[in-house]
């Protein structure tokens, strides 16, 4: 004979708690956290949560490449080009396609046909679009000038070898899959999804697809709760509906609890049915029920329990009540167990801090990264070119520039469509010069629960953002030419400098180059500058390296000077791959590619902040993380 449910009204709800009190009791008993990690292949990574940081094993792109179909050439040849005075360039006898390394250099007065994605040949520092040229005898006629670096994606300009590509806790989407594939990774470590048993209870339940018997109702709770579990990051295991029989229900609950990470029941929380269910849950382990009855409408009969470290939840029977209470109090805990961040809004308003240009006649979707500013959210443009995949990872969403607008004015308040509903601005916005050493510091911050966003704009761009108070910290390495002092002369009143680390800047060259091998700095520079065949690679305007390099050159503009990529990795890649013979970069990058290195200056890489920061606690945490990162920074070749 089976044990039957006690008569209705035999006992009442436990003390009814407020929503916040019930949530606090549930989280205190459960302390939800990720359940462990597993390696997952690229094809099945979407929607999973990274369990560890991922560092890039290679540069992306691995070489300088064309971003349009056209002709690789020297920008200096076109300085005087105009519609009235087109410049004739003789074509070299090769066509560069994707996957084919160039064999001929681009000499002055010549150009080489190149396809989108093709490697840039030695000597070339720009690409002119094919539609901006006309056939002209043995070559082409070009009626407009191009800037050095035009239509070139520089090596390492998207992803730098050794940088933290993805941070643990990120939710993998197609964007992150693209980044992993771009650096050759075919799998990643992710948090294991919690396996959640979903049971429905009640004699009246009929499964969808079956004929509806008299007094029966279809079990809608089971399927909808299973779907909601999946949305919250769990792996739902939908078990059959259980009749109101004590023995069958006890066996089902015990089996579900033993084989899964969580158990969710629906339909048995009210007086009468709740007496049996709560009794059975109490048998599963400690501490047991932490809330039975919550001041919610709908949803008062909710029962929350934690049994031997596993959540056991009994939702109300009515679908509306069940889903309301699930999303309000259960889903956040499951998300935490899956390693997912809290869920947020889908659209937000934000201020555009600087002019955003757009091509007239085309609707543009501009990716932006959000930070906190003096008057609310600030949307920083994230633009690395059409071939970049990291722009997606850095961006929180996008704003739409209408086809009839040629720009978005500074100070414009715009609506940002978020890539995910859980996007929120970081505690710390770090904008300025990037260094791989920052990864060690932001990793320490993440371990302390402080979120940080790093946007690489160069030292001058970082100082500009700090002046507007669009960021909290500006990494800089600017040499003041008159005083020979780093960084401090560039601070405004009210700013202070957090001492960072020292980076040895130097001349990089291929081992065996007699012009530099075994020579001191002055002797090597004299030999390199005296040789017209020695091709250098410069650095972008506004960078601290450019300032130091210009000071070293003393006004000289050797061949290749106007080839100005925006990273140390791109400089080193150009030299290592023979597209240039020398340039300036930091020692860790040179060592990574096996290049020769002649020290030039022990550069100061420091952090400008306001003396009255927006979030003093977060800035203090940054300084503590900086101190704690000393060992990791020294292992990377930096000096504290």
Report on this model:
The protein has 640 residues and is an alpha+beta fold. The protein folds into 5 domains: 19-35 and 193-337, 3-Layer(aba) Sandwich (Molybdenum Cofactor Biosythetic Enzyme, Chain A); 37-60 and 158-191, Molybdopterin biosynthesis moea protein, domain 2 (Alpha-Beta Complex); 65-153, Molybdopterin biosynthesis moeA protein, domain 3 (Beta Complex); 344-425, Beta-clip, CATH 2.40.340.10; 428-640, D-Maltodextrin-Binding Protein, domain 2. Helices cover 24% and strands 27% of the residues. The protein contains 15 helices and 36 strands. The strands form 11 sheets. A 6-stranded mixed β-sheet has the order 7-4-6-5-9-8, with no helix packed on it. Strands 16-13-17-20-19-18 form a 6-stranded mixed β-sheet, with helices on both faces. Helix 3 (221-231) packs parallel to helix 6 (319-337), helix 4 (246-259) packs across helix 5 (273-282) and helix 8 crosses helix 14. It is elongated, with a radius of gyration of 31 Å. It starts with 18 loop residues before the first helix and ends in a 5-residue tail after the last helix.
In short:
The chain is α+β, with helices and mostly antiparallel strands and 640 residues long. The protein has 15 helices and 36 strands.
Q: What number of domains? A: 5
Beta-strand level of the residues, as a percent range? 25-35%
C-alpha end-to-end distance? 77 Å
Summing up helix and strand content along with how strands pair, one would put the structural category as alpha+beta
Shape: elongated
* CATH topology group of the largest domain: D-Maltodextrin-Binding Protein, domain 2
Number of helices: 15
What characterizes the major β-sheet? 6 strands, mixed
